[in-house]
């Protein structure tokens, strides 16, 4: 985790005045929620241990004291129950933020969050919207075992009506969270537990990052590497290693996978003529496979090789730390994929 928390290769996208301040990822998420709750009294937070305990990962630390029990609500251990309650309140005009202690636990709430929230506007003929944010920890990397390490974007991105946000750094976490809370559609906000302690430059004051706008973290001319969330940091490390071998990589952080910033990706691939997609989901029917298909469709005549993909291995997530690190997308796998895509293997 230390390589991610203090990665000197990571280049933040913001040039807003006042960005010299450094705070942790978890504090950036909290700051966004607090600012929006002060701005709009319809916004409230609910979930397991978010109030009295300050959140299982201390993301909601101090919020109960400021906003009170009516707006920072501890719930029973019943994801299906409190998700359904929050959706009902959103239909009636409130703007809830639902914390899942882990997105792995959202699987027991699949009916309300996948079968109700995304379809409500359509099924009601526009009478009821569902402005709601579901947020929490997603993905493996913390030795939590197979059942607590889901990268749910591989499942949930298939559902129309859902917006999926996966920030890779504190500045994006704040700007994207504020956008999510103000959005009139259901937003799934996926955070990595392994990034919560990461520090980064976060501007003070008001700023929002629009959905569907990727960030180019590193410019290059030989190969485009696309990713989102925690694996972006592995891509940056791999790019530095490959630079020493004479392979100049462009690294794109998509930030959101629904909506997808395809124009930025296409422009990059047309420049580099090679592409690698890095996705912590399993490979079959994943966001990475969709992105690869889109690149092939739009850049077929520009590519010198097929789009290479790096995913988590197609097995249940192992618990042992060495096996877990090998299971995930990692620097070695990314380097190998880039070398193959550029015929340098």
How are the secondary structure elements laid out?
Elements: H1 2-5, E1 22-24, H2 25-39, E2 43-47, H3 63-67, E3 72-74, H4 79-91, E4 95-100, H5 110-116, H6 120-123, E5 133-137, H7 153-156, E6 163-165, H8 170-182, E7 187-191, E8 199-201, E9 215-218, E10 223-227, H9 231-243, E11 249-253, E12 256-258, H10 262-272, E13 275-279, H11 287-299, E14 308-311, H12 321-327, H13 331-341
Parallel strand pairs: 2-3, 2-4, 4-5, 5-7, 6-7, 10-11, 10-13, 13-14
Antiparallel strand pairs: 1-8, 6-12, 9-11
Task: Give the CA-CA distance, first to last residue.
Answer: 29 Å
Number of strands: 14
Rounded mean pLDDT score: 94
pLDDT under 50 segments (min length 5)? 1-8, 12-17
- Named CATH architecture of the largest domain: 3-Layer(aba) Sandwich
Q: How much of the sequence is in beta strands?
A: 15-25%
In CATH terms, what is the fold-level topology of the largest domain? Rossmann fold
The dominant shape is globular
Q: Can you identify the CATH class of the largest domain?
A: Alpha Beta
Largest sheet: 7 strands, mixed
> Roughly how much helix do the residues carry, as a percent range?
25-40%
Structural class: alpha/beta
The CATH homologous superfamily of the largest domain is named: Thiamin diphosphate (ThDP)-binding fold, Pyr/PP domains
Number of domains: 2
Number of helices: 13
Cα-based radius of gyration, to the nearest Å: 20 Å
Write the element-wise H/E pattern from the N-terminal end onward: HEHEHEHEHHEHEHEEEEHEEHEHEHH
Strand arrangement within the widest β-sheet reads: 3-2-4-5-7-6-12
């Amino acid at each position: 985790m230390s390589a991610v928390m203090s990665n000197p290769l990571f280049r933040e996208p913001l040039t807003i005045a006042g960005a010299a301040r450094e705070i942790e990822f978890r504090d950036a998420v909290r700051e966004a929620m607090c600012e929006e709750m002060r701005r709009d009294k319809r916004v409230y937070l609910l979930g397991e241990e978010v109030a009295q305990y300050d959140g299982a990962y201390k993301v909601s630390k101090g919020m109960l004291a400021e906003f009170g029990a009516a707006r920072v609500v501890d719930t029973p251990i019943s994801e299906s129950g409190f998700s359904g309650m929050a959706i009902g309140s959103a239909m009636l005009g409130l703007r809830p933020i639902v914390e899942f202690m882990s997105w792995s636990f959202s699987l027991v709430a699949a009916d309300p969050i996948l079968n109700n929230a995304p379809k409500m506007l359509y099924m009601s003929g526009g009478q009821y919207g569902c402005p709601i944010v579901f947020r929490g920890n997603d993905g493996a990397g913390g030795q939590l075992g197979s059942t607590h390490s889901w990268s749910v974007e591989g499942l949930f991105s298939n559902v129309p009506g859902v917006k999926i946000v996966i920030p890779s750094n504190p500045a994006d976490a704040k700007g994207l969270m504020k956008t999510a809370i103000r959005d009139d559609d259901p937003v799934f906000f996926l955070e990595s537990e392994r990034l919560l302690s990461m520090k980064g430059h976060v501007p003070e004051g008001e700023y929002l990052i629009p959905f569907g706008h990727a960030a180019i973290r590193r410019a290059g001319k030989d190969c485009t590497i696309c990713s989102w969330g925690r694996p972006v940091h592995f891509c940056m490390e791999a790019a530095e290693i490959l630079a020493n071998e004479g392979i100049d990589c462009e690294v794109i952080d998509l930030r959101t996978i629904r909506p997808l910033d395809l124009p930025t990706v296409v422009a990059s691939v047309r420049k580099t003529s090679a592409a690698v997609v890095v996705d912590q989901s399993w490979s079959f029917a994943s966001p990475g496979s969709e992105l690869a298909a889109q690149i092939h469709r739009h850049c077929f005549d520009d590519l010198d090789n097929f789009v290479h993909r790096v995913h988590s291995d197609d097995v249940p997530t192992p618990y042992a730390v060495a096996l877990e690190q090998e299971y995930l997308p990692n620097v070695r796998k990314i380097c190998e994929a880039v070398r193959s895509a550029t015929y340098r293997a």
